[in-house]
Amino acid sequence: MRRVATVIRLRPEKEEEYRALHAAVWPDVLAALHRAHIGNYSIFLRDGLLFSYYEYDGDDLTADLARLAEDEVTRRWWGLTDPCQQPVASAAEGEWWAPMEEVFHDDGPLGHD
C-alpha cells in the first residue's frame, strides 16, 4: 500500500460550492476511485489550502490515474471542482494537485494505555 498526499489552493469565493460538492460526492466518482485502487481518501482544508490524502493498493499508480482521468463521470466532476481550485505557487508546470513529500510516518497501534 502506498500513501499519497497532495496540496492545492482553494479559491476563497468557491469554498461554499466546494464544500457542497464534497458533502454529496457522486457514487460513480467514488466507484471510479475504487476501480483505480484508491481508498481511504480524505481532503482537509486549512487557511485556503486543500490537503488530500489517499491510499493506493494497485501496481501502477500512473496508469490507474490515467484511466481515472479518462473516466467520463470523473471528468464531469472535475469540471465542477477544478474551477474551485488553483495550483500552489510551487507546483510544476502543468501540475494541478502538487505532490507532497512524506517526512514522517508511524503505523503503530492506535490504542491508549
Structural class: alpha+beta
Output the CATH class name.
Alpha Beta
* Helical residues, percent: 25-40%
Let me know the average pLDDT: 95
Spell out the helices and strands N to C: EHHEEHHEE
Total domains, how many? 1
* Assigned CATH architecture: 2-Layer Sandwich
Strand content: 25-35%
CATH topology descriptor: Alpha-Beta Plaits
> Taking Cα atoms only, what radius of gyration do you get, to the nearest Å?
15 Å
Low-pLDDT regions: none
Using the alpha-carbon principal axes, give the shape: globular
For the secondary structure, the number of strands is 5
Q: Termini distance?
A: 28 Å
Report the total helices. 4
Describe the fold and architecture.
Strands 1, 2, 3, 4 and 5 form a five-stranded antiparallel beta sheet that branches. The protein has four helices and five strands. The protein has 113 residues and is an alpha+beta fold. The mean pLDDT is 95. Helices cover 34% and strands 27% of the residues. The longest helix has 10 residues, at 61-70. It has one domain (2-90): 2-Layer Sandwich (Alpha-Beta Plaits), CATH 3.30.70.
Describe how the helices and strands are arranged:
Blueprint: E1 2-10, H1 15-23, H2 27-35, E2 38-46, E3 49-56, H3 61-70, H4 72-81, E4 85-86, E5 98-99
Antiparallel strand pairs: 1-3, 1-4, 1-5, 2-3
